[in-house]
Write a structure and sequence with these properties.
heterodimer, A: 224 residues, alpha/beta, Rossmann fold, Arc Repressor Mutant, subunit A, 2 domains, four-stranded antiparallel β-sheet, 21% strand, B: 355 residues, alpha+beta, Heat Shock Protein 90, 3 domains, five-stranded mixed β-sheet, elongated
């Protein structure tokens, strides 16, 4: 998987590159819009991380140019302005996702992962991690053959974590996908739900599956 | 005493004095003529005749003058009342709309012109403050992004000792808090400048409240707080779904945060005439009356000791107030110390015709 990162702020570009490389992506970096457009036209990328505020040609203009020339590479927009309108504008211009700055690195990585994997998404109706299973048709969850009662919200949270099993899921992305919140509510809602979910799926079982990655997010996996 | 009354009194005074002058002149004239005619008792005659003339002609003249004066001042000062009404309606959000001028070049028109100039200067300085906040919050975002990103990168380092890891994670928590403050400030600065567009559509408020009730129960559980829904009528309003959910979550979160262990939170949504009335009450320690009017102020923390224990960005209620006013609603908060604290939000109902 090859990803293009377009970000004029050198330090930001550097840690984004490192984080994506750590996830196994090959990463190219551009610092302005014109270079980005040239790179995207000559190299087939699997995804582009595109900052909106760039010197010269801005991110939205790069995106429009790409889409006009029938380039459908998935694009994640980054913006320091973080306006609701801008998000809509970006998505209308053909972006696949939008992340306001300051973002959490785990969040960005998770989104790029989702972006590049979109076509090969796990379409299976029964999700499985160790002896935990979740049937996405009947909404039934079982661990070690024992039925687990879940509320609608807990079900959505578990499904989201299981679809991304083994990967760290950031708080904002959970709020967006499970709660459909487009804002950071500044509450510990996610932590409390995770705690409840953990009681239901991990309390009487070994090994523990649902882990908190301090300062980063949550991950559902067999080995800690 | 209004200017009009004062002017009328002065006018009456002047009329009386001039009438006396006229009377005296008439008396002198008549007296002169009578003396010329060598009549006797001229003096008494002259006085009586002059008095009669003044009484018969002067009094109606005075009354007419008074009426005329009253009408004249009323007419001259009528634009003042209009001006007063217009000025009364000025607040920080409509400074950009100048008062309507008559352009007839009179004193009041001149006053309006000067006043409009002052409005423009005020608007300018309000704008500068807004822009400053907006720019400041934008400027903070790049360094914050770098700080968060690099700390997170450091946390991924496997060779970190548990103590180092804990320190980095704790720093990250504070950076996230700072991020929330900056986000809140950006939102409010934009809202002040009228740059936040709401996506208004018919929204089933009762569904949002039920949804929020479920979240509130979960939020309250760790502190052993009971949350109840004391009524939830089917209500549709015209609003922005995301912002209304943000409003509900903010209020529910506050009701739980500023509560006592084993306390209670009661939510309800009712129809009251043509308004939807949402109340969220908590059994918290209450808000002292001297602090109550300021709870919607940005970064206002009534009790400094409280801010140490409750985590928040200090902008929650300001954001609530903005969301409510952006929906043309109203929000009030009442509190009895050590009893109930109730937040009431009112929106106009959207009349949906049943088919």
């Amino acid at each position: 998987m090859r990803v293009l990162v377009v970000e004029d702020e050198k330090k930001t570009a550097s840690f984004v590159r490192k984080a994506l490389q750590a996830e196994g992506f090959a990463v190219d970096v551009c610092h302005n819009g014109d270079d980005a457009l040239a790179a995207a036209r000559t190299t087939p990328f699997d995804g582009i991380v595109l900052d909106i505020m760039l010197p010269g040609r801005d991110g939205l203009s790069v995106l429009r140019q790409l889409r006009e020339s029938k380039n459908a590479t998935p694009v994640l927009l980054l913006s320091a302005r973080g306006e609701v309108n801008e998000r809509v504008e970006g998505l209308n211009a053909g972006a696949d996702d939008y992340l306001p700055k300051p973002f959490e690195l785990a969040e960005l990585v998770a989104r790029v992962r989702a972006l590049t994997r979109r076509s090969a998404e796990n379409k299976s109706t029964v999700l499985r991690v160790a002896d935990l299973t979740l049937d996405t048709v009947t909404h039934r969850a079982q661990r070690g053959g024992m039925e687990i009662e879940l509320t609608a919200r807990e079900y959505r949270l578990l499904e989201f974590l299981m679809r991304d099993a083994g990967r760290i899921c950031g708080r904002m992305m959970i709020l967006e996908k499970v709660w459909d919140y487009d804002f950071d509510p500044g509450t510990n809602l996610v932590d409390v739900y995770i705690r409840r979910l953990r009681e239901k799926i991990d309390a009487n079982h070994q090994p523990k599956l649902l882990h908190t990655v301090r300062g980063t997010g949550y991950v559902l996996k067999e080995t800690p | 005493m209004t200017i009009r009354t004062r002017l009328t009194f002065w006018y009456a005074g002047i009329l009386t004095v001039s009438l006396l002058v006229i009377g005296y002149g008439t008396y002198q004239e008549i007296d002169e003529r009578l003396r010329h005619d060598h009549r006797r008792k001229a003096e008494e005659h002259a006085l009586a005749e002059a008095g009669e003339m003044v009484f018969q002609v002067g009094l109606p003249a005075i009354l007419l003058g008074l009426l005329g004066g009253w009408w004249l001042t009323r007419r001259a000062l009528a634009p003042m009342a209009g001006l007063t009404d217009a000025i009364k309606k000025i607040h920080e959000r409509n400074l950009r709309e100048p008062l309507t001028r008559t352009r007839n070049g009179d004193e009041l028109d001149r006053l309006t012109e000067v006043f409009n100039g002052m409005l423009a200067r005020l608007d300018d300085s309000f704008n500068r403050t807004r822009e400053f906040t907006l720019h400041a919050s934008h400027e903070l975002k790049t360094p914050l992004t770098i700080l968060c990103g690099e700390t997170e990168t450091a946390l991924r380092d496997e060779s970190l000792s548990p103590a180092e890891r804990e320190r980095a994670a704790s720093q990250l928590d504070e950076m996230r808090r700072l991020t929330r403050i900056v986000d809140g400030l950006t939102l409010l600065a934009k809202a002040d400048a009228g740059q936040v567009a709401l996506k208004l559509e018919p929204v089933r408020l009762d569904e949002l409240v039920r949804d929020n009730f479920a979240d509130a129960q979960i939020l309250a559980e760790p502190q052993g707080i009971q949350v109840e829904l004391a009524g939830c009528e089917e209500i549709t309003v015209r609003g922005d779904r995301h912002r209304l959910r943000q409003l509900l979550l903010n209020l529910a979160d506050n009701a739980v945060k500023y509560n006592q262990p084993q306390g209670r939170v009661t939510m309800s949504l009712r129809r009251n005439g043509d308004t939807a009335e949402l109340t969220i009450a908590n059994s918290g320690p209450g808000i002292p009356p001297e602090i109550l009017p300021r709870v919607f102020d940005r970064f206002y923390r009534g009790d400094p000791s409280h801010s140490q224990t409750v985590d928040g960005c200090g902008l929650g209620l300001s954001i609530v107030q903005w969301i409510v006013s952006a929906h043309d609603g109203s929000v009030t908060i009442t509190s009895e110390p050590s009893k109930l604290t109730t937040v009431t939000v009112r929106f106009s109902l959207l009349e949906v015709r049943c088919q």
